[in-house]
Amino acid sequence: MDTENNTNTGAMRDLKSLSKGELIKLMEELGQPAFRVKQVEDWIWNKNASSFDDMTNLPKSLRTELAGKLTLGGVEEVARQVSEDGSRKYLLRLPDGATVECVGMPSGKKLAVCVSSQAGCAMGCAFCATGGAGFTRSLTASEIYDQVMHVRDDFNTRVTSVVFMGQGEPFMNYNNTLAALRKLNDPEQGGIGARHLTVSTCGVIPMIRRFSHEPEQFTLAVSLHSAVQKTRNILMPGVKKYSLLNLYTVMGEYVDRTGRRPTYEYALIGGVNDTRDEMDALCDFCRDTLAHVNLIQLNEVPGSKLKPSTQRKAEDFLNALARVGVEATIRNSRGADIDAACGQLKQRLS
Ligand code: SAH
Ligand code: SF4
C-alpha cells in the first residue's frame, strides 16, 4: 500500500519530485552554474512558483528548456469555506484531477495547518466522512508540502504547526509522509520545528514501530476511539487485525524509545463509546502510560446514524481519566460551522 508514486503526470517527471542530487545533475547537464540549484529550490519550496515563467531570476532560455523537460505540479484551489472562528478550509485539486482538503487554523500569531496524506482513505472508519467515500490514491511528498504552502500564502503568514489529520491514513503512505515531514522541518524549506509536526494514525502498528526509530522529534497521535476490542472493530474495521493489546505494547515501546508523549484521539459517540464500561476500559488502557487523551465530540457526518455524545459525558470521561492520573483535554473542534471533520467539504461538493 505504501506507494512511492512520484510521477503522476505520465511521461514527464515533475520538478518537485527530483531529489537534490537529481536537480544538481540536471543543472550540470544543462550547462548551468551550481547556484541555479539553490535558485530553483527557492522558487519551488519557498516562493511556491506555479509555473517555470514565474522563476524570473533564471534565464528565459533555461525556463523554456525546463518547461520542455519537466512538469511543475502544484495544487489548485477549487472551493473554500471560511469559519466564524477564522479557520479556512480548502478543497484543492492535484494535477491528475484528484481532490483533497486542508484547513488553516489561525490563533493569535500562530497558524496551524491540517493536511491530507491521501485522496480518500481505505481504512473505512464508521464515523469518518473520508472513510465512507473510499480510496483514490496516495499523495506525493510535494503534494502534501504544497498544501501547507497554499495555506501559508493565503494567510500570508508563517505556518507554526502542521497536523496530518485531513484525509487519508499517513502510515499507509509512510515514505511520502516522512519525506513531507522532512521538507516541512528543513530550515531551508518549511522551517517548522519537528515537535510542531504531528502525524495522526488510526494505529498501523508496524509503521508506529518504524516511526519510533526516526531520528527527528516528530509528534505522534493515535486515533483510539475505543479501548474495547469489539467496539473498536466496528468503528475502525481497517485496523481490526492490529489488536488493542498489540497497540498497547507498541505504544509502550514508542514511549521507551523516544521519551515523547503520544496523544490518543477519542471522539465521543453517543451510546457507542461513551458508556461506563468504555470509560473504565479507556482508563485502564491509559493509566501509567505517558499518553495524553484528546476527547473530541463527534462531528456529525450527514446521513450517519452516529451522533455526538453530551458535554456532561465528556466531562465525566475527563474526570475519570484525571482520577487515574491520565492527562486529558476536551477539544472543541475548530471550524465546526464549516464541516471541519475530515472529508466533509469534499463529500458535500461531490
Ligand atoms: N487517518 C488518520 C488521520 C486522519 S483523520 C487517523 O485516523 O488518525 C484525523 C482525525 O479525525 C482522527 O483522529 C479521526 O479519527 C478523526 N475523525 C474522523 N472523523 C471524525 C468525526 N466525524 N468526528 C470527529 N473526529 C473524526
Ligand atoms: Fe481514514 Fe483516518 Fe478517516 Fe479512519 S479516521 S477512515 S483512518 S482518514
Labels describing this entry:
single chain; 350 residues; alpha/beta; DNA polymerase, domain 1; TIM Barrel; 10-stranded mixed beta sheet; two-stranded parallel ribbon; 14 strands; 20% strand; disordered N terminus; binds S-adenosyl-L-homocysteine; binds iron/sulfur cluster
What would you note in describing this structure?
- The chain contains 12 helices and 14 strands.
- Helix 5 crosses helix 6 and helix 7 runs parallel beside helix 9.
- It has 2 domains: 55 residues, DNA polymerase, domain 1 (Orthogonal Bundle); 263 residues, TIM Barrel (Alpha-Beta Barrel), CATH 3.20.20.
- The longest helix has 15 residues.
- With 350 residues, it is of the alpha/beta class.
Task: Please describe the topology of this protein.
Layout: E1 13-14, H1 20-29, H2 35-46, H3 60-69, E2 70-71, E3 76-82, E4 88-93, E5 99-107, E6 110-114, E7 118-120, H4 129-133, E8 135-138, H5 141-155, E9 161-164, H6 174-185, E10 197-201, H7 205-212, E11 219-223, H8 229-235, H9 244-258, E12 263-268, H10 276-286, E13 292-297, H11 311-323, E14 327-331, H12 344-349
Parallel strand pairs: 1-2, 6-9, 9-10, 10-11, 11-12, 12-13, 13-14
Antiparallel strand pairs: 3-4, 4-5, 5-6, 7-8
Helix pairs in contact: 5-6, 7-9
The protein binds S-adenosyl-L-homocysteine and iron/sulfur cluster (SF4).
S-adenosyl-L-homocysteine (SAH) binds at residues 127-128, 165, 169, 200-202, 223, 265, 267, 296, 298-299, 301, 341-342.
